[in-house]
């Protein structure tokens, strides 16, 4: 699997997660989730354009993705933080690609995921930053 396939799969999973967890959220947190889901959709679309421009077949989204259980908004925020951590981990895992154009996209996507993760941590009242987003 190449870098763009790994990243696109992560974006598909994130979009699915936002759809599943957003109904637990309200107020500003719900608005933030809606905006972030749209950002993931835009990233997915950008990647699909990349596949088309490179005459490559993109992976298709799965019909469902494994999700953590959520009972309320607190659980949903925790799950969305885990989702963003998974997205950052996916992009970080492929940022070393030898393909310069792909590496540039990977770095941009990793930065976007790290920024989103910080937003969720602030919303949850946690320490917002860590030195290496996407690294266990």
TrEMBL record:
SUPFAM superfamilies: Ferritin-like (SSF47240). Residues 3-135 form the DUF4439 domain. It holds the Pfam family DUF4439. This is DUF4439 domain-containing protein. It comes from Natronoglycomyces albus.
């Amino acid at each position: 699997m190449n870098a763009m396939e790994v990243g696109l799969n992560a974006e598909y999973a994130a979009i699915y997660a936002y759809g599943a967890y957003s109904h637990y959220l309200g107020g500003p947190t719900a608005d933030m989730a809606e905006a972030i889901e749209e950002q993931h959709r835009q990233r997915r679309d950008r990647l699909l354009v990349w596949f088309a421009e490179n005459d490559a077949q993109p992976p298709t989204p799965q019909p469902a993705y494994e999700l953590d259980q959520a009972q309320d908004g607190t659980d949903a925020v925790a799950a969305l933080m885990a989702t963003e951590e998974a997205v950052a981990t996916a992009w970080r895992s492929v940022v070393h690609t030898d393909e310069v154009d792909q590496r540039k996209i990977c770095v941009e996507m990793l930065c976007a995921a790290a920024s989103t993760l910080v937003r969720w941590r602030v919303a949850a009242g946690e320490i917002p930053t860590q030195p290496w987003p996407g690294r266990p």
